[in-house]
Model the fold of this input.
Amino acid sequence: MRFVTKRLIHVVLLLLAVSFLSFGLLQVAPGDYFDSLRMNPQVSAQTVEKLRAEYGLGRPLAVRYALWLRDVSRWELGYSIASNSPVSALVAVRARNTLLLSGAATVLAWLLALPLGVWSAAKPGGWLDRTAGVATSAMVTIPDLLLFLALLLLAVRTNWFPTGGMMSLSGEEAGSFWASCKDVAFHLILPACGLAAAMLPLLVRHVRAATIEALGSPFMRAARGHGISGARLLFRYALPAASNPLISLLGFSVGTMLSTSMIAEIVLSWPGLGTLMLESIFARDSYVVVAIVMLSSVFLLAGNLLADLLLFASDPRIRTE
Amino acid sequence: MRRRLKLGAAAVGLAAVHGAILFAGFLAPYDYASQNREAAFAPPTRIRFVDTKARFHIRPFVYGLKPQKDGAYAADETSAYPLEFFVEGSGYRVAGIIPLRTHLFAVRAPGRVFLMGTDAYGRDQFSRFLYGGQLSLLAGLLAAGIAVLLGLTIGALAGFYGGWLDELLMGGAAVFLALPWLYLLLAARAAMPLHIAGWQVFLLLVSMMGLIGWARPARLVRGVVLSAKERNFVLAARAFGASDAYLLTRHVLPQTSGVILTQLALLIPQYVLAEVTLSFLGLGVSEPMASWGSLLSSLQQYYVLSSYWWMFLPALLLIAVFLLYYVSADALQERVGSVRL
Done:
């Protein structure tokens, strides 16, 4: 219990620091949303100033930060000027979409990486190990951006997949809940597969290394001596023993996953946090940007925390410490 | 032996790439900004040795471009332009300093040679790739240099002195590591004006990229310093009365060289990619300056993506460059690992 409270306090402190950093950075930035209005000859300077005052953009930084913190404590994240709605409502939908995409990709990537890595480790230097080694090295060198562009090309040329978006049916057309689920899943295939492919090389390498290490331990020899072999040995004995570094990796990979997911979202126009972030930067809608930065670090920290808790649950050595 | 061969081959390849990019002006037949509006989206020019009468020429030549009705181009076989070497052309500066006018190859106007086709403004993609490399590679090198230097300083201080300084600095690192890098990069980018031009602002962009990347190298350096400062010869030097500064520079920091080298080899391609991503998203350098990212950004339009295959050529070259970087980082890591960290 003490372990959990300590971690939670740590997370809250980190988030405060992140918020201070991002808020300060974005608020000292030159220009705001009304810059484009100022260029408009039909809008007078007084109108612009009035609008700025209305949205509280003229106040000093410390006051705005304090007000924003008060808002955050009420689960409000400020007001988006560009879309004229509260930031939290705007961001919540996008965050759900990003989580859907990264969640699907994470599951897919691990489902592929676990058997691939374990089987490669079963016979180091065997044909599967060598093929997987070459394939993962080749995949590492392809920048994510190009991977997603290639997927977009595939979608545009073959028409097998939608070229972007999350749904093609509108509310009434979709009709039943199941139809819209199928629609979303169909749109999810390409970005999720791309994201999983981008994560895969790293995961396979780590699974392989961890399994090889586990296979070399004395209790594995004992298990072999008892006549246990094949898949049972690999997946029931070696994999759980190798799980410790892999669970840490699951936590660490959240950050990379979110960044890669942003590129996927933008190239394949998935309406997630990444696309919203880019739009808000171009619109100079700073409260949205701050909210997204905060949320991305919340996800990352939540991933790390989850990994720690999983470790705590799975590894008795940590509990006794 | 094989390992050394791998490292050597990668180093030679990288040196060749950087050399080619450094002498972009010499290798590129055109300036990065020179437009040919009547030759928009022209495919790569074929270099020929055999003419229509099946005669072989030692000097390669190209045919002129004949626009077709559907927007495509055909070779105009009535007009041949021989390739000329070491010709005087538009002026450029090598490394931004030495002014020159000689180009490796060119054809006499109105003939044109586009080795990698042209973009929407009829600008030579080959020339733009070379010039774009100057910007992207420089960004990667500078940003990685800044990040590693900063990480080295902070990590060494934290590891060497420990105590509250260590906790403060590593707490700061935790804040930076608590953000996904692309989100952090875009947030920092959002703090700068949207449309920026010129080299000074490019440097601003680069230092921003370097400043946000110090946390990971700092942690690694700290780890090495922590173990290095307890080694016997360091303790002995300390007992002889060596000052902190002497200990750090003479005994502790040299032990971090392996980590620093591998971090550099890993970070440079990452930062090149960061610049490519920023420019791809339209947040990097602005037109008409070329960067590898802005060369790719036109692929976001579906018609460019599906109709003009040569727009993908920069992407393929990019993969080759990254391959070289990864191979050398890999070889370095193996080498350092075998020596001992």
Notes: The beta strands of chain A are 79-80, 85-86. The first helix of chain A runs from residue 2 to 27.
